[in-house]
Specification:
Elements (H helix, E strand, L loop, with lengths): L8 E9 L3 E6 L2 E6 L12 E8 L5 E4 L11 E9 L3 E5 L7 E4 L16 E8 L5 E5 L2 H7 L11 E10 L2 E6 L4 E5 L12 E9 L5 E4 L4 H4 L2 H12 L4 E2 L7 H8 L3 H13 L3 E4 L2 E4 L1
Length: 286
């Protein structure tokens, strides 16, 4: 049956050719194989092997350029198109065929669907009508390909791809193939399925998985005024400045170029971030 041939490498018998293609037959089905992929043209009756699929023109085709994804074979694929009533199309490396991942496998909320450029780990499956579909990797598959993280990754920046969405947070796989989790409290908005994120490791769990955050570090989140004060402290010989929240407004204006209100807010942010402290009318860097 046709569905038993597609999505995998098969061997077929050459029966004909034209200017651009060699035609080969297997189980009563005729496939075309582009001559440009062959180093040597086979004779009639010879055997040729290639990856079998139906191209975008609904023609059966073989290719020597076997894609990374296959039946029961998972690999990353890039999203190239989104079609709301059908699903998303991914590029698995076929010259004239993108693979559809059905909307049945995608989040209920369309705003959480992958966008063009996102990536998904997919295998292939063939339905009873001979149509090839993308099959998203399961939780078990991600666990199977993952490696354990070590404590040296704490506070490191990582690149991670979202592979599972839950109410409590997002499950990801890092570029180093470590499993990670982003709790809903550690993000401003919910990432899309397949979205590639830049995250920070906030904990390495005993089982070798990571807790990640999409929120900036404290010093990255502070205001421009606070950043200016922090830089002034860092460049001070004794890491202190003769100012506090009770300092003269004019003196603050002359030194920093900001109002006392702005100064107090900035210092408050720095203290909350545990970067500075005040003592005896002075501001100190921690």
């Amino acid at each position: 049956m046709l569905q038993d041939l597609l999505g995998r490498n098969i061997t077929a018998t050459v029966i004909d050719e034209n200017q651009d293609y060699v035609f080969a037959q297997q189980a009563g089905q005729t496939f075309r194989l582009a001559k440009k992929e062959l180093n040597k043209l086979p004779k009639i009756g010879a055997q040729v092997t290639g990856f079998a699929y139906e191209n975008e023109n609904h023609q059966l085709q073989l290719t020597k350029n076997t894609p990374k994804s296959g039946i029961g074979k998972y690999a990353w694929a890039t999203v190239v198109k989104v079609q709301r009533g059908l699903g998303v199309f991914v590029d698995i490396g076929l010259e004239n065929k993108d693979i559809v991942i059905s909307l049945d496998e995608l989040p209920e909320l369309s705003e959480l669907w992958p966008k063009r450029g996102d990536r998904l780990m997919v295998a292939l499956k063939v339905d009873a009508k001979g149509r090839i579909w993308g099959d998203l990797a399961t939780e078990e598959m991600f666990r199977a390909v993952s490696v354990k993280a070590n404590q040296k990754m704490l506070n490191k920046n990582v690149t991670a791809t979202v592979y599972r969405l839950k109410m409590v947070g997002s499950y990801v796989l890092t570029s180093d193939y470590c499993l990670g989790f982003i709790h809903q409290s550690e993000r401003e908005q919910e990432p899309r399925l397949g979205e590639v994120l830049q995250a920070r490791v906030i904990a390495v769990r005993d089982d070798g998985t990571l807790n990640l955050s999409l929120r900036p570090r404290a010093h990255e989140a502070i205001s421009d005024d606070a950043q200016m004060i922090l830089v002034a402290l860092q460049h001070s010989p004794d890491k202190s400045l003769p100012f506090c929240d009770k300092s003269d407004p004019q003196a603050i204006k002359v030194y920093f170029g900001i109002s006392k209100g702005q100064f107090k807010r900035a210092v408050g942010h720095l203290m909350k971030a545990n970067l500075v402290y005040q003592e005896d009318g002075q501001l100190f860097l921690k």
